[in-house]
Amino acid sequence: MAWLDEPDDEMLAILQREYDRQNTTLQLIASENFASPAVMAFTGSVFTNKYSEGYPGKRYYGGNRFVDESEDLARDRVKVLFGAEHANVQPHSGANANMSVYQALLDVGDTVLGLSLDHGGHLTHGSPVNASGKLYEFVAYGLTASDERLDMDAVAEQARAISPKLIVAGATAYPRRIDPAPFREIADEVGALLMFDAAHIAGLIAGGAHPNPVPFCDVVTFTTHKTMRGPRGGCILSRAEYAAAIDKAVFPGSQGGPLEHAIAAKAVAFREAADPSFREYASQVVANAAALGDALAGHGFRLVSGGTDNHLLLVDLRTFDADLTGKQAQESLDRAGITLNRNSIPDDPRSPFVTSGIRIGTPSVTTQGMKEAQMVTIADLVARALRAFDDDTALDAIRAEVNSLCSGFTPYS
Ligand SMILES: *Cc1c(COP(=O)(O)O)cnc(C)c1O
User: Fold this and answer.
1) What number is the average pLDDT over the span 191-207?
2) Is residue 202 domain-shared with residue 262, that is, in the same domain?
3) 257-310 pLDDT per residue, tens
4) Does residue 283 share a domain with residue 269?
5) What is the best residue among 172, 205, 312 to mutate for testing ligand 1's pocket, by most ligand atoms within 8 Å of CB?
6) What is the tens place of the pLDDT at every residue in 84-122?
7) 324-359 burial string, b = 16+ CB within 10 Å, else e?
8) Is residue 289 domain-shared with residue 257, that is, in the same domain?
9) Per-residue DSSP letters for 150-195?
10) What is the whole-number distance in angstroms between the Cα of residue 221 and the centre of ligand 1?
């Protein structure tokens, strides 16, 4: 063989450290999960060797018979899972999926209505630092000031005023159900297309814990690695009439050769998500988030919108400690072995780099087998760590407790 004989000890040591980190600390980042060993095996499979530009049956390279079988199976499984007419499983990521949809449905300069970044939207929903905001005229809708829910009256009013070509529903930091039906009504009234970005909640939808937007939308995009629990990647579902435009926008429009090893792993994840056990998983994710929210509220934290319907909580730290920033909280919790991210809360007085909030998600801990009782423990650990946010000795002691909690629920043995 032409390959090196000696193992890469330097890289193996780094891998071991990351493996230990995942096994011994709490992963509460709402967009993360633990993929199954089967998903990881296919991600590392010989499909990584293959060039297969094009689509099943229409490739630009030879030797794609089995790649075609794999990609066809991925497309068929995901169409059944969500009841979609068409699927493109090639986007390398959620951002790529969104940009391809825009390229398929819009001309440069077209007007789009999307959720404001400050109120939980995503960079690819028109942020000025993202290509979406540079190429298209995004106008932002937001949440009500009173109950911090999507302000659908304002969405309707704005849609009438600006006649967008496309309305984008979906969020990256919104703890409540997003009802697709009123978005459809508004889109129909103003003659707009409707895209739902289900990046975060695709697994909840597949598991029956959130309404399915597919019957209401022209296009639905999602990531396969968040609640969906597959390999890192993106996916686009659409009505049949947009299939050709979307496929063209993904390849050759914006990507080259597809990651067929990731597509094989997506097929595996879609099968896992169709299993009855995944329905239990999705409903436990939601139950755990609710339990964690209740317990955190009991410690004096304010939950944005008053609670959660899904897998995540947005926590306003100011009622707990007026001077504690999201940045400081994230750093102190990291020291205590509790991994999560700072997050702006609606109309945050602090900058997005500092913030007054944190975002907490339950997809990973639920995959590990934790239930409501462990959520109460986690809320207690978070509250104690944040009370001792500048005391390294106390934080190290909490980290030992976190290690011991995690040792009963290691995702990978
Ligand atoms: C995570 C996310 C994306 C982007 O996914 P990547 O795979 O990180 O590119 C897009 N939209 C929303 C709403 C997200 O939460």
Assistant:
1) 98
2) yes
3) 999 999 999 999 999 999 999 999 999 999 999 999 999 999 999 999 999 999
4) no
5) 172
6) 999 999 999 999 999 999 999 999 999 999 999 999 999
7) bbbbbbbebbebbbbbbbbbbbbebebeeeebbbbb
8) no
9) B-HHHHHHHHHHH--SEEEE--SS--S---HHHHHHHHHHHT-EEE
10) 9
| Ligand 1 atom nearest to CA at 226 | 1
Residue 224 beta carbon below 6 angstroms from any ligand 1 atom: no
In one-letter notation, the amino acid at residue 270 is F
Closest C-alpha residue for ligand 1 atom 8: 94
What's the pLDDT score for residue 371? 98
Predicted confidence band of residue 413 (pLDDT cuts 50, 70, 90): confident
The 10s digit of each residue's pLDDT in 169-183 is 999 999 999 999 999
Identify whether residues 121 and 197 lie together within a single domain.
Answer: yes
130 in contact with ligand 1, CB cutoff 6 A: no
Tell whether 289 and 209 lie within a shared domain: no
Strand 312-316 vs strand 357-361: parallel, antiparallel, or unpaired? Answer: antiparallel
Give residue 389's domain range: 278-407
Residues 238 and 344 in one domain: no
In terms of domains, do 265 and 393 share one?
no
Catalytic sites, residue numbers: 51, 53, 197, 223, 226, 232
Domain-embedded: residue 9? no
Angle of CA points 37, 41, 47, to nearest 5°: 155
Q: Is 197 in the pocket of ligand 1 (CB under 6 A)?
A: yes
> What mean pLDDT comes out for the span 234-247?
98
Which of 274, 300, 331 delimits the end of a domain? 274
- Kindly state whether residue 192 falls inside one of the protein's structural domains: yes
Residue 289 belongs to a domain? yes
Q: Please tell me the total count of domains within the chain.
A: 2
In this structure, are 307 and 238 located in the same domain?
no
Residue pair 117/130 in contact (Cβ under 8 Å)? The answer is no
Residue that is written with structure tokens 């059944």 in the block: 80
User: What pTM does this model have?
Assistant: 0.97
